[in-house]
Amino acid sequence: MGRKGLFIDYEYCTGCHTCEVACKQENNYPAGRWGIKVNEIILESFNKVEINYLPFPTELCNLCAARIKGGELPACVKHCQASCMKYGDLTDLVQAMEHKAKTVLFAPK
Amino acid sequence: MEYDKVVTTTAWSPGPGCHGGCGVKLYIKDGKVVKAEGDETHPFNQGRACPRLLALTQYMYHPDRITYPLKRVGKRGEGKFERISWEEALDTIEAKLGKIKEESGPESVLFCQGTGRDIGGPISFLAYSYGSPNWIQLGLAGHSCYTPRLGAMMATYGDYSVLDAAQFSEKRYDDPDYKVPQIIMVWAQNPMPGCPDGFFGHWIVDCMKRGSKLIVIDPRWTWFASRAEKFLQIRPGTDGALAMAMINVIISEELYDKDFVEQWTEGFEELKHRAAEYTPQKVAEITWIPEEDIIESARMYALAKPAAIQWGVPIDKCPEGSTVAQAITHLWCLTGNLDVPGGNVIARPAYGVTTYPFSTQEMHELYGEEFVKNLNEKRIGANEFPMVRNFRGWAQPDLAVKQMFTGDPYPIKACWIQTSNILGGQAADTRLHYEALKRMDFVVVADLFHNPTTMAVADIILPVASTAEKESFRSWWVPLQVIVPAVEVGECRSDWEINLELAKRFNPELRKRYDTVKQLIDDRLKPAGITYDQLKEQGGWVMPPENSASRPYRRYEKGLLRPDGKPGFRTTSGKVEFASKSYQDWGLDPLPYYSEPPESEVRTPELFKKYPLVMVTGRRSSVFFHSEHRMIPWLRECDPYPIVEINPSVAGKMGIEDGEWIVIENDRGSIKRKAQVTPIVHPKVISVPHGWWLPEEDGREPNLYGIWDINCNNLVHIGPGAKSGYGGGAYKTALVRIRKANEAVE
After folding, report:
1. Which residues of chain A are at the B interface, by a Cβ-Cβ cutoff of 8 Å?
2. For position B357, what pLDDT does the model report?
């Protein structure tokens, strides 16, 4: 079995915190513990403000092993309101990157 | 995760807090909800969920949740309450309200609600059964939340519209009849955090992925603004001028839809004449938006086929909000984008099912004209304001709070407050409303948590069920759906249950009609030819049928909109009226126009010298719904502080560091906020999120969870701002200054 990963299209990540809270609920983490954390990058360049968000899976991320076993998507991927996250084989996700700019791939484990 | 069963239902109100609509799955273990997830088979959210829904278990089982009825035993504000039985609570309320009715008349009780919850039905039912015409959003200056926009649409073409994101079809974006808007104009809204007006905010993102380009109009750089073809960073409160200039460009450059205008509209020449007053050059000065951006945006919108506008509550809060909304409505009518795929489609609730009578027109149909006429005789604001009298059956909030002091033309003795934290939330001029509520002989609050309002004024508190604990239904455009109770928590009861029981006590006639809430719901569902149980069994939701009045598209061609079955619109002329006959009949200008905010660099230059910043309040948070959720750990840590957004150029000049507490003040008072130094806000504007109180602080007086220190509405005056009675309020345009917390003003 190849390595699995999280693909994130940050052109469409709106920074809504859904992935963070989905993860906390799934793992019953207390406040203060994060399996994924959204980073905000706001830059002023010329007359434009660039606003980007990028979720980062922390050391606690196990790609929702129990959910995957039960045939479900990781909690963050399922609930992402912008539908900008994918879970799958890294090789497939690299293919997805070929077709879409402004994307990142995480292989947390 | 282990669980016993999964309950499929609809989210609406307590819990996520929002305007609802998402299909959810509740996982139940040992009689408790252990997990909430999105329902992937539901067309509204397609499995997605927001942070507030995902934190539902922390909300439902929060240690501070009120789970049984309470009565006040100390003085108001001391925070001393004692547990009582439901029977005692209801008997007390019946006796007290009964006595007030006898002594002062039923109109002396205000029935107060907050925003668009599962509340309109229960509260109007109770108010009218008791006999009071005063159903109200107390504190909401100008009643400026959707009502002005709804009124403008109704006055123009006899219906309401929403951006078409294929939400009226089970197949959604795959429906072959659907087209994605080429251009979406996001006007004065960041719809993602709050999903306002029944619209799932991320539908716009869905459209962007399918090719929609954006024009964004906002004083702040939102996420949408950063991805827009055109971003018009507007001076707060001047949206009316911008809309008129766009109309001017579209008409003078002949970019409008000539066929549609000729066949389906009237009043074009009058509109053309009026709009000519608003040259892009002049409007550029008013709005701070460069002239060429106004012209190019108008062209871009008009040339795109289809194009749609998604608009927000700041439009209502413009002075004369109902005229600003009228001008924007004219944009989609002029360009032929009304009720076409990917445009602004006419929105009627599926099968015509309504949770409660909404417009006066519907009120007439449901209660009869005589009843409505009598309501208007005593309803606060109905004599003064034409739209209160003729459009929507709500009392006017700015006049109501005055009447609480003056007793003119009749005294106000009591308030029933349900789904509304008036003092921690919507009330402009917090102190004024605090003092007004203190004058009441009797105050009931139905809510889930203590908050500044319960602490300051509640005599009886009733514990309300969350969305997971109630039997209800939702009919706000689409789909028609049921809310299914999954569990019970303490002695909490749903708003419907509470209000039906009390309504029966005041109106024994109701006992014959409805034994249970379910019977009442079944009665409301009759136009759909379905019962609550049937709808629940078939999955919980249903879309409007093809070729019906409640399903797009181009219903005006098919004769589906008018009661007489003829093609056209539900107006007296049968046309879209650019010069509104309704407005004219109501004594208002039939054409849209611009008026300057009550305080501004233009209208009050002397005041502006003293207070050189415009305070916009109300920017939404993904993790809070208005004044809710500050006590939910998973949510609060995502947005922990009451902040103020300040442009770096302003902060730099004043030596204000990011993260430092500062003072914001004007002649009405001062508050403290934590500075967030960010380029997203215009240098002449500060953005101050609303609804802040601190559940972790002392709730007793004088502190009241810190509202006197941090609630931005301490700096906002009450209206009324609009001739129609709807619109205005200074939530977006109050002038203020800022200083470091430890520095006195020179």
Report:
1. 11-12, 14-18, 20-22, 24-26, 30-32, 42, 44, 48-53, 66, 75, 78-83
2. 64
Asked if B280 and B304 touch (Cβ cutoff 8 Å), the reply is: no
Look up residue A82 and give its DSSP letter. T
Gyration radius from chain A CA atoms: 14
Q: Do A42 and B623 touch (CB under 8 A)?
A: no
Contact residues, chain B to chain A, C-beta under 8 Å: 1, 35-38, 40, 47-51, 54-55, 57, 192-193, 201-202, 205-206, 208-209, 221-223, 225-227, 622-623, 633-638, 648, 678-680
How close B633 comes to chain A (CA, Å)?
6
How many CB atoms are closer than 10 A to CB B68?
15
For A73, the domain range is 4-106
Domain count, chain A: 1
Instruction: Specify whether the backbone of B29 is left (phi greater than 0), alpha (psi in -120 to 50) or beta.
Output: beta
pLDDT of B359 reads 61
Question: What's the CA gap between B266 and B413, in Å, rounded?
Answer: 48
Report angle CA B359, B363, B367 to the nearest 5 degrees: 175
* Dihedral angle sign, alpha carbons of residues A66, A70, A71, A72: negative
Torsions phi, psi of B407, nearest 5?
70, 15
Radius of gyration of chain B (CA): 25
The widest CA-to-CA distance across chain A, in whole angstroms, is 49
Please give the Cα distance from B388 to B408 (Å, whole number).
18
* End-to-end Cα spacing for chain B: 61
Crossing angle of the two packed helices B86-104 and B495-506, in degrees rounded to 10: 50
- Please calculate the CA angle B153-B156-B162 and round it to the nearest 5 degrees: 30
Task: Give me the pLDDT at residue A45, please.
Answer: 85
Nearest to B727 by CA among B462, B387, B410, B443: B387
pLDDT per residue as tens digits for the range B1-16: 789 999 999 999 899 9
Which residues, 6 or more positions from B540, have their beta carbon under 8 angstroms from its beta carbon?
A: B8, B9, B10, B23, B42, B481, B482, B484
Separation of alpha carbons A104 and B308, rounded Å: 32
What is the value of ipTM here, to two decimals?
0.98
Q: What are chain B's domains? A: 5-60 (3.30.200.210), 70-138+355-480+491-542 (3.40.50.740), 161-346+556-585 (3.40.228.10), 605-740 (2.40.40.20)
d(CA B202, CA B167): 12
Q: How many CB atoms lie within 10 A of CB B102?
A: 9
What gap in Å lies between CA B270 and CA B267, rounded to an integer?
5
Q: What is the CATH number of the domain that holds A59?
A: 3.30.70.20
- B449/B444 Cα distance (integer angstroms): 14
Nearest to A17 among B206, B208, B638 (CB): B638
Residues of chain B with pLDDT under 70: 357-368, 371, 720, 743-746
Q: Where are the beta strands (DSSP E) in A10-77?
A: 36-45, 48-57
The 3-state DSSP class for residue B664 equals strand
